Each structure stands twice: as C-alpha cells, then as structure tokens.
Amino acid sequence: MKIKPVDFLVIIAYLILVTVIGIILKKQAQKSKNDYMLGGRSMPFWMLGISNASGMFDISGTVWMVSIMFIYGVKSIWLPWLWPVFNQIFMMVYLSIWLRRSNVSTGAEWMLTRFGNKKDALPSHKTIIAFALLSCLGFMAYGFIGLGKFIEIFIPWRFVQPYLPFAIAPEYAAHFYGVIFTLFTVFYSLLGGMKSIVWADMIHYAIMVFVSVVIAIIAMTALYNARSLPVPIGWNNILFGKELGLDWSAHIPEVNEKIRANGFSPFGYFFALMTAKGILASLAGPVPSYDMQKILSAKSPREAALMSMIVNVVLLPTRYLLIIGVTILGLLFYKDLNISIADKTDFERILPAVLNTYIPPGLLGLVLVGLMGAFMGTFAGTFNAAQAYLVNDIYLKSFNPKANNKQISTMNYLLGLAVVTISILLGFLAKDVNTILQWIVSALFGGYIASNVLKWHWWRFNSSGFFWGMFSGIICALAAPYIFPGTVPLFYFPIILLISTIGAVAGSLLTPATDFDTLKNFYKTVRPWGFWGPVTAVVQAEDPLFVPNRNFGWDMFNVLVGIAAQTSITALPVFLVLLMPTQTAIAAIILAVSILILWKTWYQKLPDN
User: Fold this and answer.
1) Among 35, 97, 112, 178, which is disulfide-ready with 31 (CB 3.0 to 4.6 Å)?
2) Which domain, by its residues, includes 330?
3) From the record, what ranges are coiled-coil (predicted)?
4) What pLDDT, in 10s, does the model give residues 249-265?
C-alpha cells in the first residue's frame, strides 16, 4: 500500500475543512429558498465559473479521458465532443444569456415561462422534473462508482477489513469507500447549500491546479530522459482520416483489442456523427443539472455568459495537464503497472495505478484530495440540483405553496437524504464507468435533444409536443440497445433523433398552440432568434420600438471561433508536455487569434448588467 500516514493527514484535513465550510454557511443558506439553492444570486461570475469547472473535473470522466488518451493519443482530444464539451461555447456565446433572462430557479420553472401554467402546459413541467431527477441520480451514481474504483487501488480492501467490526464482501469494497466520502459531501452541501458547494469547489480546484502542474513537470522530465514514447505512428498527431490508422501490435497488442471493442471505426464517420449530435445537443441548452443551476445563480445575463467563458478557460488546460502527464508516465512504465483484472486489461485503471506507483507521499495525498474533491464537487452540485427540483417544483408547487423558510429548510434536508440514499442504491447496480457514461450521454440524452432544441427556436412548439418528443425519444433510447446489441450508441442516435422529432412536431401540430400572452412574455423577456415570425409580428404591432434578435449569424460565427479557441486551449498543454514545440506554437497562435476575434465580436457586444 503506497499511501502513507502523511497522505491520510492531508485527506482528513480537507474533509474537516469542507465540513467547517458547511457549518459556517448554514445560517446564510437558511435565509431563503434562493439563498439555499442559488447562493442568493450574489456570487461573482468567476467564482461560479471555477465552481462549475471544478464540478466537471470529476474522477470518472478523468479516468476515462486518461484511458482514451493512452489508447488514441492526441486524437482523443476530439472524443469528449460526445458529451459534447463544446456545449460550453454555445452557452458562453448566447444560451446562458437567454436562460438567465428568464429569472427562474430551475429548468422545470423555466417550462412554465415558455408553455404557461395552464392544465395543458403541465405535461412539459412534469416531464422535465422526471428527467432532471433521473439524470441527476444517474450522474450521482456514476461519480459514486468512479470514486470507489479509484480509492480501492490506493487502499486495498485486505488492509481495511481487519479493522472493521463487520464483514463486507470484497466486490463491494469500492461501494464502501464511495459511501464514506459521499456522506461528507452530503453533510457540507446539505447544510450550506450552493455557497458551501462553490467555496469547497474553489479550494479543491486550487489543489488540482497545483497537482496537475507538478504531474505534468514529472512527466516532461521522464519523457525528456526517455527521448521518445513507445507508441505507434500517428499517436501524437491531432489530425485523422477515415480510419484511425493506429496499430499497437509492436508495442501493446491488447490496445488493438480495446480499439476494436470500442467500435469507433470508421473514425471519419464516427466523428461526423459525433459532431452533428454535439451541435444539436448544444442547441438544446444545458440539461437540468448543476450546470444549469450555476447559470441561474449568476447575478445577471451578462455574468451568466462570462461564467460559461470561465469554465472553458480554467477547466481544460488544468485537466489536460493532468491527463497527458499521467498518460506519459503510463506509457513509459506500462510494464510495471498492474491494470489487469481476472486476466483482462482495464485501461480505466491507468490513472490510479500511475498515481499509486510514481507520485511521492505527501503529494499523493494532495492528488487524492484534489480528485476526491472533484468527485465531491460533482456529487454536491448534482445533489443541490436534485434538491432544487424536489423542493421548488414538487413540494412548493404541489404540496405546500405557502411554506415558510423553516419548512423549506426541513424539506431540503429530508429530500436531500432521500436523494443520496437512492443514488447510492443505483451505484450498486452499475457495472463500470464507461457503461454508464455511454448509456447516459449517447442513449438517454438522445431522447432529450429534439424537444429541447425546438423549445428555444420554434414558436408553435407546445407542451404536448415537448412531452411526446421526450417520451418517444427516451423510450426509443432505452429500447435501442436491445434492438441493436453490440452497437455503439452514437451509431443509432439518428434513429432516436428522427423518432423523437416526429413525436415532438406531431404532438405540437395536433394540439392547440401555447396561448399568445405566454408566448409574447417569453419572447420579449428571453429574446431568442429562430422561427418566431407570428409572435414577432404581434409584439411589434403592440410595440413598434421592439427590435427582434437578429444575431443568429454573429452567434454562429462566434461559436465557430469559440470552438477553435476551445480546441487549441485543450491541445496546447498536451503538445507542451509532449515536448512538441512546433505544435505548441501553432496551438498558441490559433488561441491568440481566436481570443482577439472574440474580444471584438462577442465580449464587447455582451448586454449590460
């Protein structure tokens, strides 16, 4: 067991610190519903942005990203487009502004501003609540599993079991570790609400910056001494063709088996589908989880956009310094790593195996704190979002609309405990990190896209259309793995999209339109572009001075420039640590030019507070 007493002390100190944060901020959180759920909308955009980025720096995602960097090399930079990572650019350019203008507390409450509060508008409200809770629970279970697998490598179960007064089967050791750290997370986030989550995120993000830089330096030194990496031709090339063209036979033959199992070939076709799906998912806006809650917590629409900008700036360079650093060490010392389970190579064990083998005591404790803190931030943010939907959109809307602050606080605590209990139970049912990632991102969210693109951009889209689009899409997404067994979910995404779009359009056209008063209020408040002609005509007839949003062209231009900036800010630290000066310089130039363009075409045109 590599972990030493000094590492335990670092971990314990961090857990005490976040617990104290929750206790200190408890009184502020109890002032009102908005203070608990949204931090009173008093926090600056840069704090919210760092917190949001910190929540995205989760263990499970980082474990997966290290494994794909190891396997696919620099080309793996494109694979997070599956999520898609560039949705933060769409949020930065215009969607965060639109969302924050609504001035609501949750995504479900937003539905009432778009479709109204009448009986025929309620299906969309109930649907988004159900979807939000299911997605929150799914992500919480996903983080829970990643944490357990991560800790188990550093603290083998055989060292812990003798000190426990009860017996636990070894296959549930990861779950036991996950529960322990989950309880600390629940404590500080339950007491202090959004502000305690943001402050805790700030602390562990600072730790991760330090850790990532140190690991990158260690990797650069090792690579400089080794002169080269044992990788196939094309591994360090960010460009690709129809096929990947990576042959690991002369280096690590089992990697070829993993590439075949992943099914990402032909890569050109896979990339085209991934990009198309990513654009549509980005147009749909944020899912109803912690990202949306951070946007709604911003002081103003302008600060919401700046918050999304900060996410890109602080998340990607730091995360990829760690990813490429660990990958280099994993490649150089692969033969010394034990990443096999039952004679099967598990590339998701590269990250913890490298840290356990090559990071010195003391620094290892700091690494563990940073990565466990990332899990805690992801879990806490998602936990806070689930509480918000349960309290704001179910308890206050349906059971006790006149509840006082004490009653609201009590329900926050009770429902929060219920949420975390269910998420832990879900964690026991999941098989591995990648299975859950694929299921949530590529399948279930495929059913989410059509309805949520249309809700922003088409005036005739109504609550019934939203319900039937979501329902048909999700049913199709859940059935597709059984209809197309062994197929990468992305490859049957077009079928899910087609069926959900038909359901959304038919559901809208076969039922009455949303009442015009609701549409006018939404249109004047949010000011979206898209197919809003009839509503625009009515609004301008009533107010000739009203100017509709004609920024579609500029917004799409800024999105393209933003994606170029995001890709270059991701590639820059990778090429830097790989000691590739020419590619590093090219990435830096693209980034600098993109920043100058965005300064002129985006930043200077942001709305005033």
Assistant:
1) 35
2) 5-444+547-605
3) none
4) 888 888 888 888 888 87
Using DSSP, state whether 309 is helix, strand or coil. Answer: helix
- Alpha helices in 359-492, H assignment, sequence order: 363-388, 405-429, 433-438, 446-457, 463-483
What are the pLDDT digits (tens) for 184-227?
A: 888 888 888 899 999 999 998 999 999 999 999 999 999 999 98
Is 111 buried (19+), middle (13-18) or exposed (0-12) by CB count in 10 A?
A: buried
Give the distance between the most distant pair of CA atoms in the chain.
Answer: 78
Flag whether the pTM goes above 0.85: yes
Nearest-angstrom CA–CA distance, 103 and 95:
14
- Domain membership of residue 374 (yes or no) is yes
CB within 8 Å of 18: residues ≥ 6 apart: 184, 188, 196, 200, 203, 373, 376
Give a yes or no: residue 337 inside a domain.
Answer: yes
Spatial separation of the C-alpha atoms in residues 53 and 309, rounded to whole Å: 10
Q: What CATH number is associated with residue 385? A: 1.20.1730
Other beta carbons within 10 Å of 435: 12
CB count within 10 Å of CB 428 equals 12
In this prediction, residues 91-98 reach a mean pLDDT of: 97
Query: In this prediction, what percent of the chain has a pLDDT beyond 90?
Result: 46
The answer to whether the beta carbons of residues 98 and 456 sit under 8 Å apart is yes
Question: How confident is the model over 464-516, as pLDDT tens digits?
Answer: 999 999 889 888 887 888 898 888 878 888 999 999 999 999 999 999 999 99
Nearest to 282 by CA among 269, 291, 270: 291
Selection from 152, 300, 289, 236 nearest residue 575 by Cα: 236
Structure tokens at 320: 């990829």
Residue 304 in domain: yes
Contact 477, 443 (CB under 8 A): yes
Number of domains present in the structure of the chain: 1
Cα→Cα distances 487→75, 238, 260, Å: 22, 26, 12
Q: How far is CA 200 from CA 147, 365, 491, in A?
A: 17, 17, 39
What single letter denotes the amino acid at residue 222? A
Give the tokens for residue 133: 């809770």
C-alpha span between 19 and 15 (Å, rounded): 6
Helix (H) or strand (E) holding 345: strand 344-345
> What are the beta bridge partners of residue 340?
345
